[in-house]
Amino acid sequence: MITAKAKYVNLDHRISQCDIFHDIEIVEKITQKSDGIDVTFLSFPLVICLNQDCDLNSDARDKIPENQTNKNCRLLHLIVAPLYNFDTFKEGTHWGEIFDIGQRVKSTGTSETKIMNNEDPRYHYLSFENNKPFPDLIIDFKHFFTISTDYMYSNKNKRVCSISEIYREKISQRFANYISRIGLPD
Questions:
Q1: Which residues contact 121 (CB under 8 A, 6 or more apart)?
Q2: b/e code 49-87 from CB counts within 10 Å (16+ = b)
Q3: Model pTM?
Q4: Sorting pLDDT into bands at 50, 70 and 90, what band is 101?
């Protein structure tokens, strides 16, 4: 089963939808103390950009100096989600020491199969052909964050690859469907 294909193209001039980056840090919290300010960071081994490619293209275009008069399409932040190793995710240890998930995915039965078939709306399973460049990965749409476009552009060299175009829209649609769901009382 192939649910994603890595694409290795030279897109140095801009970030694209479903680009995968390694070693990205975000600010977890800033605490004021009597002797100064304490800043705590979270570091993610892999993240995927979830913005629409048309928005990313417009943002890049509007960053070009000769287009400085048109700033209508500039993005302040990008939407990214951590990518977790699927085996670690199944064990419930994918967040490490950040917080205890404790929930394990049942390897026998429908839980793991539903997730691997992308039938659970909360998750998107990624299996790459020939396991290149990664082992099986998973996106948990409940865990996403925004990050400054300036930070991501200054870390373009940390881009590992991008998901091929034919798989990007499926990921984007599933993310949009998950975050736009209607919350019902218990």
A1: 141, 174, 177, 178, 181
A2: bbbebeebebbbebbeeeeeeeeebebeebbbbbbbbbe
A3: 0.84
A4: low
